[in-house]
Amino acid sequence: MARLQLKNVNKRWGSFVGVDNFDLDIADQEFLVLLGPSGCGKSTTMRMIAGLEDVTDGEILFDGKVVNDLEPKDRDISMVFQSYGLYPNLTVYENIRFPLKVRKVPKEKHDDMVMNAVRMTELEDFMHRRPADLSGGQRQRVALGRAIVRKPTVFLMDEPLSNLDAKLRVSTRAQIKNLQSKLKTTTVYVTHDQIEAMTLADRVVVMNAGKIQQVGTPTDIYDTPANTFVASFIGSPAMNLVEGLLKDGVFEGENIRVEGLPTGPSGNITLGFRAEDAEIVDGAGQIEAPMYSIELLGEASMITWRLGGALVSIKTNKEYRAEIGDVVRARIPAEICHLFDTATGERVAL
Amino acid sequence: MKHSSFFWFVLPSTVLMLLFIAMPIVSVVTQSFYTAHEQVILEVENCGPFGCTQETSVDQEATAALREAEPLGKFAGFDIYTDRNHLAFGEVAAAWVKSDGLPDFGSSLMNLPFYKALGFTLTYTAIVTPLTIVLGFIVAIAVNAVAKSLRGPTIFFSLLPMIVTPLVGSLILFWMVDARGILGTGLQWLADDPNLSVKASTGLMWIMLMVYGVWHAAPFAFVVFYAGLQTVNTDTLESAMVDGATRWERIRYVVVPHLMPLVTFVALIQLMDNFRVFEPIISFQASAHATSLSYAIFNDLGGETRLLSSAAATSVLTIIGIGILLSPVLVRTWRDFNR
Amino acid sequence: MSSIATKQTPTVKILANGFLIMWLIVAAFPFLWTLWGSFKVEGDFFSKANWANALFGTLTQSETGGSFTGAGYYGAWVQEEFWRAVMNTTIVCVCVVTISLTFGTLGGYALARSTYRYAFWFLLFALMFRAMPPITLVSGYLLPFFEWNLWGRLSTTIIVLVALNQPFTLWMLHSFFKNIPQDLDESAMVDGCTRFQAFRHVIIPVMWPGVITTGLFSFLLAYNDFAVTSMLLSKENQTMIPKIASFLGTTQTKGNVMFAVSAVVSATAPLFVMVMFFQRQIVSGLTAGAVKG
């Protein structure tokens, strides 16, 4: 059980900045997700927590104790790697026992602990196989089992689901969530998949280009994205963003005009709204433009326009029919809109 | 990886390489500026009834003592580099003045040991390297075209000339081209000259050495290219086909560009290896017709009088040659790395 | 892979097959010829009268009574004590391969895992060292080795060969270790190993294919060396290759050449066997550097 603090942590390679001034407190028993596109520094941050990467600047503290100079083995962590890092020459049982063996846990305790982990990860039937004879999902569970066999103070997971197929990913995700709530171990989880982040996290850290973009609960991040990067990264589909001019509470862009917005801010503004918040109307609407495409998603249809440079999509019922090129209108109420400064990308307070 | 663990992991290799590669280079460079002590001469005046005569004799003891005390010899500066056996500035200048026309100058250069060795080494490198690549490429394409079941044995036999010890491989060829061997007889029959002998002809000797070089190195090029051919993107090949490319166009525009990095790799390795050509000259007993830089060093070192300084100077010149040869590669790697 | 794109027309097939047969003759025939000839007398092997004598052994028949003779082998192995050279070669090769691989795996592993700039420089220097002809270095060894009385010994030669092998070994093992996922040793370190324990418990069990391949090439380098062994070994410590060369140097008494021929065949045989058993590893080793370079 541990509280994790990162104080102005930096990672640089020569002139290249991998992680820029990362500052965060992770509470005991928290499930924290680092989310961002590849190369944003999220894995590097985790590897610095693990001690696999040197910290260029700043401090990492476990329960108030600086661990910068500790070897990974001395940090009392366990980690699940993207490609699992299973030992190919050892059986499943031996793989899971390995941490106990090298940490000189008394031999007589091994079997109980390993079997406990095996049960929790439902690997009873595969204990004596080698990793090469396992499916992707089973290997993933071995990696999980190896991580939980000891009770470490921190779990680290580096994109543990990215090598699984879509279906398995959903079930394993649930399993991870369940395991963590049982074990109550502080967990840091790295992913580029926002759905994983939303479903698993107590708090999400959105990162881009080495910098923290926003920290918050999944709801916070979804409802009030701090900038256009977060807005365009979170949600499926991502938030629609249209550039235009805001003046006296009226936003105007190509083929779009929204009234009733706050009168405070003005100038070049990017207007954001979510596809599921707006609706298609027959009468007058805020968007009025020829349709670019229509896609049937199953439970709904997605209508897309081209407004200026941006593609804007809105969800509608699956029975809706229109031809590409037809003029289609949509209602965008002012209360669903988010405003961002076009120049900085930062959210404009309403 | 942490600096300290890196240090301990590479320590044994580093120590060995420093002691036995870096230090010898330093030692060679130093040695090349010194020359062996001359013998200590004693002058003794013998005065007899018919007057005094000066007699000189070698003081063996003093000579040995001097050589013992300063094994490096006495400092000679660049003298060894410029003497007749190396860069031979004086002789080259004289030849330049005397010669009429470049061919004449060239042939007088080839009478100087260093230029003779350099000339053969460079010719050998320049001819064998491209031929190796071409032959290796053709064999690779051919092996790729035959039935799968034949490929294993083909690769097995193809590897032999490369794997076999150079000295031994070249001996085997040498015995065959001997005037009394099967190839030698074949050549005599072809040229319709019963007295034809590879041993006696400089031109034939050069050709034989190069034939050996290609024979020895082509398997390496072949294996590398063959492995490269297995990774040619079938999608690209098929799309080239759909786009209407003929067989030759497919090789020209898809296969060859795919293999280009490998060509560079093979060329680099071959340049390094061909520049040190050595064993075949021993096996072919070719030193009258062709010597190489490596052979020149070996020749100085061997024998009763070990001409350490002379060998060292040739070594330094060889190392400089390697440096020039490799400089494009080094510059490129440097640029790639800094990008 | 038998799609239309890779299918061959009959003409191409015939051309390819014809060319290959020619190449195979060029590559393999000299060995077979010499192997056959090594069981003849010199007069047949080098036949003034008729090259076909080497095939049928006309003189061998008249000189020894059979069409094959082991005289060359007897002369080389017993009379000239070639077996001594074989023993020395065995000692040198075993030691060189073992030491090279021990040092090389440690260094190659570190080079593959270090992300720092100096690892790159290290490899670049190794490449430059690889380009040095061994004979140029030999002229640097002689004087100090004479001075310190190290010359002529097998142990000195072994260490020198190991050192000359290192650049190559490091490059090759480095590229093999790069192919072992980093997750493996990192998870071991998280599980509680030091760097060295991770190497020992986790990397060593999975590194054998690469090590065997590299070992084959170290073996070849040691086995095939002439420049170093001929200059650094005293006569009684000679290995096979300088010994063969010395057969040539001695005056050409009758039959002496046949000693050399049979010694050459004896020296080639192990290589032959090696290619037979390790063809796959050799091919993968030759391409390991190339595919990434």
TrEMBL record, chain A:
The family database entries (CDD domains) matched by this protein are listed as: ABC_MalK_N
User: Which InterPro entries does its entry note?
Assistant: AAA+_ATPase (IPR003593), ABC_transporter-like_ATP-bd (IPR003439), ABC_transporter-like_CS (IPR017871), ABC_transpr_MalK-like (IPR015855), ABC_transpr_MalK/UgpC-like (IPR047641), Mo/tungstate-bd_C_term_dom (IPR008995), NA-bd_OB-fold (IPR012340), P-loop_NTPase (IPR027417)
Keyword Zinc tagged = no
Domain ABC transporter spans what residues? Answer: 4-234
A biological process (GO) annotation for this entry?
carbohydrate transport
UniProtKB keywords = ATP-binding, Cell membrane, Membrane, Nucleotide-binding, Translocase, Transport
* One Gene Ontology MF term: ATP binding
Which PROSITE patterns does its entry note?
Answer: ABC_TRANSPORTER_1, ABC_TRANSPORTER_2
SMART domains listed in its UniProt record = AAA
Pfam families found in the cross-reference section = ABC_tran
Instruction: State the GO CC annotations.
Output: ATP-binding cassette (ABC) transporter complex, substrate-binding subunit-containing
Instruction: Give the family from UniProt.
Output: Belongs to the ABC transporter superfamily.
* Protein name, entry field: Carbohydrate ABC transporter ATP-binding protein (CUT1 family)
The uppermost taxa in this organism's lineage are:
Bacteria, Pseudomonadati, Pseudomonadota, Alphaproteobacteria, Rhodobacterales
From TrEMBL, chain B:
The source's domain of life comes to: Bacteria
Instruction: Name any Gene Ontology BP term.
Output: transmembrane transport
Q: Does the keyword Cell membrane apply?
A: yes
Principal localization?
A: membrane
* A matching Pfam family: BPD_transp_1
- According to the record, the segments passing through the membrane are 6-29, 117-143, 155-177, 204-229, 251-269, 310-331
Alphabetically list the UniProt keywords. Answer: Cell membrane, Membrane, Transmembrane, Transmembrane helix, Transport
**Topological type in the membrane:** Multi-pass membrane protein
Q: Which GO terms describe its cellular component?
A: plasma membrane
Where is it located? Cell membrane
SUPFAM superfamilies given in the database record: MetI-like
Indicate the segments forming the ABC transmembrane type-1 domain, all copies: 118-326
What the entry lists under PANTHER family is as follows: BLL4140 PROTEIN
Family per record: Belongs to the binding-protein-dependent transport system permease family.
* Name used for this protein in its record: Carbohydrate ABC transporter membrane protein 1 (CUT1 family)
Q: Which organism is it from?
A: Litoreibacter meonggei
From TrEMBL, chain C:
SUPFAM superfamilies assigned: MetI-like (SSF161098)
Q: Does the keyword Ligase apply?
A: no
Q: Which residues form the ABC transmembrane type-1 domain?
A: 86-276
Keywords, alphabetical? Cell membrane, Membrane, Transmembrane, Transmembrane helix, Transport
Specify where it is mainly localized: membrane
Q: Report the subcellular localization.
A: Cell membrane
Family to which the UniProt record says this protein belongs: Belongs to the binding-protein-dependent transport system permease family.
Its protein name is Carbohydrate ABC transporter membrane protein 2 (CUT1 family)
| Organism listed in the record | Litoreibacter meonggei
